[in-house]
Amino acid sequence: MLKIDDLTGVVFAGLSALVIEGVKDENDLIRVMTRTREEPVPCPVCGTPTARVHGYYHRTVTDVPVDGRPVVVSVQVRRLLCPAWGCPRQTFREQVPGLLERYQRRTSRLTGQLGAVVRELAGRAGARLSAVLAVAVSRSTALRLLVRLPLPELRVPRVLGVDDFALKRRHRYATVLIDAETGERIDVLPGRGADALEAWLRSHPGVEIVCRDGSGAYGEAIRRAVPDAVQVGDRWHLWANFCDKTLAEVRSHARPRRVRPIASPHPAAVKIAQRHHRLRDRAENLDTPSHSSSVGVRYSSLGRVARRRAMNALCASIVSAG
Question: Which residue blocks in the chain are alpha helix, DSSP H?
Fold first, then answer.
C-alpha cells in the first residue's frame, strides 16, 4: 500500500520537476504548493551555471484536473544572479522546461490536452467540452490555442487528389489537395486556376499520380508542372457524370405523358340549360297560363322570369335617369 507522500507523487506525477510542499482542498479546486529545486541553472545569455539566489517570486498556473476538479499549482521560483563579469543579464528568472513556459498560465501538459480538443472542435464546441472536463476556457481562448498549434510538416504524397470547393458560392473558390490513398488533407490553395496548382507542383516534386475532376485548367497545370505524372479521374466525378448522362438519355426516350380528354357535359345538364334559354327568350311574350302550356312549363316559372326581367329593366332606367 502506498503512503500518503508516495500517493501524492503518483497523483501529481506530472509535477515531478518541482518539489511538492503541500496540497490544499479548497472545495471547488485543489491547490498544490510547490517550489523549484535548488540546482544550478545556466544563464540564458552567457550560459554560465549559477545557484546564487537574488530573490523569489510566485507563479500560479493551472494543471490537469483531478477528481473532476481543477488543479491550481502555486510555484515559488528563484531569481538568480549571473556570476560572469561583463554579462548584460545580471539577474534572471529560472524556467522549468517541459512544465512551465514563459508567460503561460497553464502547464505544458494541460496546454497539450486543450490543444487536442480545439484541434478537433475549434471554438464554441471546444469551449463547451472543456467546461465538462473541468478546464473551462472561453471560445476566444480556444481559438487562440488553435492558432498557436504548430502546423504539421508538409509532405508530398505519391497519389495526389485535386478538387475545388466554394468558400462563397459563385464568388470565391479554393483548391484542396489531399493524399488520395489515406484521405489526409495536404494543403489548400487560393483560387481554382492553373497557376496556383502549377506553382505548388513545381515546388513540391515527387507526385506520381494525380486524381482530379474533369477541369481543363487542372489538367493543363499538371501537364506543365509534372508531365510524367499519370492523370486519372476520381470516382465521384465519374459516377456523377455517368448518372447525369444516363438520366438525360432516359428522359429523351421517355413516352410523352397522356393528356386526359375533357369530359363532355352530362345530357341532363344540357337539357336544363336549353330549357333555361327557352324560358328567358319567351318570358316577355308568354304571360298567361294558355301560353305557358304551349311551351311546356308551369305559369309560375314564366312569372318568376318575367318579374326578374322587369326588375332589371326598372333598375337600369333609374340608373340612367339619375
Answer: 4-11, 108-121, 124-132, 139-148, 194-203, 216-225, 235-252, 267-282, 289-295, 299-321
Q: Hunting for cell 471560445 — which residue is that?
A: 139
Long-range pairs for 172-180: beta carbons < 8 A, 24 or more residues apart:
180/209, 180/211, 180/234
What is the pTM for the complete model shown? 0.57
Q: Give the DSSP letter string of 210-232.
A: EEE-S-HHHHHHHHHH-TTSEEE
DSSP code at position 298: -
Q: Which residues make Cβ contacts (< 8 Å) with residue 59, sequence separation at least 6? A: 74, 75, 77, 100
CB 162 within 8 A of CB 201: no
Tell me the pairing of strands 30-35 and 19-25: antiparallel
**208 half-sphere exposure, CB direction, 13 A CA radius:** 4
| Nearest CA among 202, 236, 197 for reference residue 216 | 197
DSSP sequence for 94-113:
--BTTTB-TT-SB-HHHHHH
Tell me the chain's radius of gyration from C-alpha atoms.
Answer: 45
Give the pLDDT of the chain (322 residues) as one tens digit per residue. 556 566 676 777 788 888 888 888 888 888 989 998 888 989 888 888 888 998 998 999 999 888 888 899 999 999 999 888 888 888 888 888 888 888 888 988 898 989 999 988 888 898 899 888 888 889 899 899 888 888 878 888 888 888 888 888 888 889 889 888 888 888 888 888 888 888 888 888 888 888 888 778 888 888 888 888 888 888 888 888 888 888 888 888 776 666 666 666 777 777 777 776 766 666 555 544 445 455 555 556 656 666 666 666 766 766 566 5
**284: three-class secondary structure by DSSP:** coil
Task: Tell me the residue type at 77.
Answer: V
Q: What gap in Å lies between CA 19 and CA 30, rounded to an integer?
A: 17
Which phi and psi angles does 178 have, rounded to 5°?
Answer: -130, 160
